[in-house]
Amino acid sequence: MMSDAELIVERRRLRRRLVFWRILAVVLAVVALAALVWEGGGRKFENHLARIRIDGLITGDQKTLDLLKEVSEADQVKGVILRIDSPGGTTAGSEAVYDAIRRISAKKPVVAVMDTVAASGGYITALAADRIVARGNTITGSIGVIFSFPEVSKLLDTLGIRMEELKSGDMKAEPSPYRPVSEKARAVSMEMVEDGFRWFTGLVAERRQLPMDRVRVLSDGRVYTGRQALDVKLIDALGDEETAISWLETDRKLEAKLPIVDWKPKTTADPTGLGLVAADAALRALGLESLRSAAQSAQLDGLLVLWHPAR
């Protein structure tokens, strides 16, 4: 049994250890916070080039639009590099992203660098830049608009199911998945597709300085490699990010060797805890990121500017 003196000595020893670990924890927390601030935004206080990645399906989500607005208003951003790897997305979402990038371009130079795919809505995004660079084997183009919808009337007949509808007009909720599309519904839907297509081809003609007759030839929906796209003047140069930086320095006279800072959309809290974050991490670890894109694609509605090979 310990004496009173020994108990006092032991308590003091434990107290010193506790104080030591508390101080160490505080120091580590401060260091971690400083590193996080520096990595996430500290360098944003110095002049730099902003790198923005436009990946996956383009829907014009608010986080992306907020990011583009923040970059536009940041005086320390002297130029922007768009890294695009996207098959496209919704027509309205692509329009929103295009408009946001054009607002950036009104203040500072923007150069697009195409990675594996920058097709359809991905190409619309690139059109917003002041210069477009692609790799020789990048897939781009796919200039066109699509409106797709299911039609399951034969399946319902097989199952003995009949859908009844009461609606205010014959074009309400048309085309319907419950019956074959009528000629009137097909014509009305096609008018909408053609209107979106005129908007898309108008962008190509304006931004690429091409006559509309030539644009119509290029806009049958086909995709092009980077080399083919250069030949038909849909892009400006073959190369990579270094090519883009060189253009910013030589053509737009930006300071050489400006640091590059990745700007990313702000993450929103997951109301269910870490479930979605953990799921994303698991998909990445298993090399199954495409499952997430496929799930997003299945939810797309409305007019689409999307290149989607069978997968």
Explained architecture:
With 311 residues, the chain is an alpha/beta fold. It is built from eleven helices and nine strands. It has helices spanning 4-40, 62-73, 91-105, 121-127, 153-159, 183-208, 212-218, 226-231, 241-250, 275-285, 289-298, and strands at 48-58, 77-90, 110-119, 131-134, 139-141, 223-225, 237-238, 260-263, 304-306. β1 (48-58), α2 and β2 (77-90) form a beta-alpha-beta unit. The longest helix is centred in the first third of the chain and has 37 residues, at 4-40.
Q: How do the strands and helices of this protein lay out in sequence?
A:
Blueprint lengths: L3 H37 L7 E11 L3 H12 L3 E14 H15 L4 E10 L1 H7 L3 E4 L4 E3 L11 H7 L23 H26 L3 H7 L4 E3 H6 L5 E2 L2 H10 L9 E4 L11 H11 L3 H10 L5 E3 L5
Parallel strand pairs: 1-2, 1-8, 2-3, 3-4, 3-5, 4-7
Antiparallel strand pairs: 2-9, 5-6
The ordered H/E elements are HEHEHEHEEHHHEHEHEHHE
Helix content: 40-55%
Percent of sequence in beta strands = 15-25%
**Major beta sheet, specifics?**
9 strands, mixed
Return Rg in Å: 27 Å
Shape, per Cα inertia axes = flat
Number of helices: 11
Helix vs. strand class: alpha/beta
Number-wise, the strands total 9
Compute the separation of the termini in Å: 74 Å
- Global mean pLDDT: 85
Tell me which oligomeric state these chains represent: single chain
Low-confidence stretches: 269-277
